[in-house]
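Lay summary. Proteins are chains of building blocks that fold into shapes, and those shapes determine what they do. In this project we predict the shape from the chain. Here is one chain we studied, written as its sequence of building blocks.
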Amino acid sequence: MRLFYSIILLSSLSLATIACGESTTSIDIMGTDKTPEDTAKVDIPQPALRHDSTFTLDFNGNPIEVVVKTSEKEFIGSIIVLPGWNYPNTGWCDSTDLCTEALSRGYTLILPQMGKSIYCQNTYPQTRQSWLKYPTRKWMSDEMMPYIQDHFALLLAAQPNFTLGLSTGARGATLLALDHPHIFNACAALSGDYDQSAFPKDNLYIGYYGQMNQFEERWTKDDNIITQIKQLQVPMYVGHGTLDKVVDIQHSDIFVEAMKQTGLNHLYHVDPNAAHTYSYWNSEVNAMLDFFEPHTD
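And here is the predicted shape, written in a compact code that computers can read:
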């Protein structure tokens, strides 16, 4: 059973403001109660991998690199770490403290090279030819995850597993958690986009799906988190900067409003001074890992 920690609310929805230096950041929290069964600790199956590993898997004839980083500490779970559009898979490690901090806590990190993927389930005849070499979410589910399970004994349902991402990687992390609620315990999504149908002129979406007025189902079904919000089961940490000029904060506002309607356990952190930068994403590292911590038992 997945752990859900309880948060005492003054009402059905609470909005708190916390001080951070001279600026303020808003926190929006919703929770569900923990059941007695959730309090029992169980032994976590240990992974077979004891050292860092880099391997490649095929996607449409293209080798896709996956880096796995292991901790010297006692294993407490795995995190699939997803990059944004055309960001390197090691960007999180190179430009933030995520890898250092997560490894120090005992996590194993899985970092696939996703290139210009928008984490769609499939590609289509209208998908730009030059983008067909970038892996889909289906590849992650059908190839990457089973390989890691079979070869490394990681991402097993009996283990604590998490997914996080930035920008389009936030969208990917959330969709992956939606696809596999039996695998993932919680998800963190920063500066992400979640409802492509609300932005029909976005060229990234058009480049994968074709025009919305011609292919509406592609925009509203398999890859649309908002239209599937009732199927999203894992606790969500969502963060966004008000000054983001690449992915407008309206994307996260739409997502959080949808979670409020379903009562999904979530925490929403808005940073009024943050933009679409590694500096902002680095500032969220400890908050994301702290959000995961209650779900590692």
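What the prediction tells us: The chain has one domain: 14-32+47-295.
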